[in-house]
Design brief:
Length: 200
């Protein structure tokens, strides 16, 4: 599955409903049920690539301005939520994270978006069969979906978090959201990132 087809699936799920994340996730899962297992695996690997592309300090900082403290798991959910907005919004926000000020960011939607990284696993898990060895099935699925492990933190250095620097870098976000408490360093807990299945 190339990236064009990946984004086409996301667009089909997004345009068929309103902007609520939970229905988009449900529709995307339904679309994956129409795909053969090898294509579901390719979708998962493409998702991992796209997700890593957004795992950057400048975007993490933008979400911190909106939400306050954002740990690794919440930022991972936020990236998944941004992917579900579609290719155009995703790419525009990566070019200019201050564009996030134009989007309706709600914690409930970010939490629902966290399910995205496990969607292929859900699709590949068969209906319950009392005679099946579910543990072996789950292990086989996890092995099929395995991708290279990524760092729990973005590359590079954390941007300056003083108010003047933030207002210069994110004028629209800082005009919309208060900066109270934003100067504290990001707390990254290794292992807390909600990641795709990865190599050990």
């Amino acid at each position: 599955m190339n990236e064009r087809r990946f984004w086409r699936l996301v667009r089909r799920a997004h345009t068929a409903e309103r902007d609520e994340t939970a229905p988009i996730i449900a529709l995307l899962l339904g679309l994956l049920h129409q795909e053969a297992a090898p294509d579901v695996i390719r979708f998962h690997r493409r998702l991992a690539e796209v997700h890593r592309r957004a795992y950057r300090w400048d975007l993490w900082t933008a979400f911190r301005i909106v939400l306050g403290e954002v740990d690794a798991a919440l930022f991972s959910d936020a990236v998944s939520w941004l992917i579900l907005r579609g290719k155009r919004t995703f790419r525009r926000t990566l070019v200019d994270p201050d564009f996030l000020a134009s989007l309706p960011v709600e914690r409930v939607d970010l939490a629902a978006a966290g399910r995205l990284l496990g969607l292929a696993h859900e699709r590949l898990t068969p209906s319950h069969d009392p005679d099946a060895d579910l543990l072996l099935i789950q292990q086989a699925i996890s092995e099929a979906l395995r991708v290279p492990r990524s760092s729990p933190v973005p590359p590079g250095e954390l941007p300056s978090m003083d108010g003047e620097s933030l207002r210069a870098r994110y004028p629209r976000l800082c005009g919309r959201y208060p900066l109270d408490g934003i100067a504290a360093p990001v707390q990254v807990a290794p292992g807390r990132r909600r990641d795709v299945v990865s190599d050990a």
